[in-house]
Design brief:
The protein has 174 residues and is α/β, with parallel strands linked by helices. The chain has five helices and seven strands. The protein has two domains: 32 residues, no CATH class; 140 residues, 3-Layer(aba) Sandwich (Glutaredoxin), CATH 3.40.30.10.
Length: 174
């Protein structure tokens, strides 16, 4: 019995190390499993929601949208590093493409942080998990570029190349 407990402990430690210290692809199993639907070339899943400021937001079948799912926490050890790294460039892109009619929205999978004012994108909260389930978000950030009802780009996680790839795809669909 003692040997079984030791082996079980070693397996759990190895699994945790694999999940938390491996690359994002390794940790989520994307090397062997297909990405969760919806994905590129799928139809967008439409929704209506109220922004944190009380304004209506609607993802419809016409127009260009960049929708990202983020996580926030007031506890530093629970904060999502990828979300924190993605926010400044997301904000800059929203400003850069504002005049071209691109709608940007950040959906926080729980509660959105307070104190952010004057953002060029819509902030939505999803404490019930309805939107998170609709878009099958298992890991944040998860970003969707949607053009006229079709998903053009899906990004899981945030990498240095993510911002450049999103700009290229935005320029292509515009």
């Amino acid at each position: 019995m003692k040997r079984f407990v030791i082996v079980l402990l070693l397996v759990l430690v190895a699994a945790a190390g694999y999940r938390f210290y491996g690359s994002p692809e390794t940790g989520t199993g994307t090397l062997t499993l297909p990405q969760p639907a919806p994905n590129e070339d799928d139809d967008a899943l439409y929704f209506q929601a109220e922004s944190r400021d009380g304004e209506p937001f609607e993802l419809s079948d016409s127009g260009v949208y960049v929708v990202t799912f983020w996580s926030a926490s007031s506890l530093p050890f629970l904060a999502n590093k990828d979300t924190a790294e993605a926010q400044p460039e997301f904000e800059q892109m929203a400003r850069d493409y504002e005049e071209q009619g691109v709608s940007f929205a950040a959906i926080y999978v729980s509660y959105a942080p307070r104190g952010e004012v004057g953002l060029p994108y819509t902030v939505l909260q999803d404490p019930s998990g309805e939107l998170t389930s609709l878009y099958n978000v298992k890991r944040v950030p998860r970003l969707f570029l949607i053009s006229d009802g079709k998903i053009e780009l899906v990004q899981n996680g945030h990498y240095l190349e993510s911002d450049e790839q999103l700009r290229e795809e935005l320029n292509r669909v515009l």
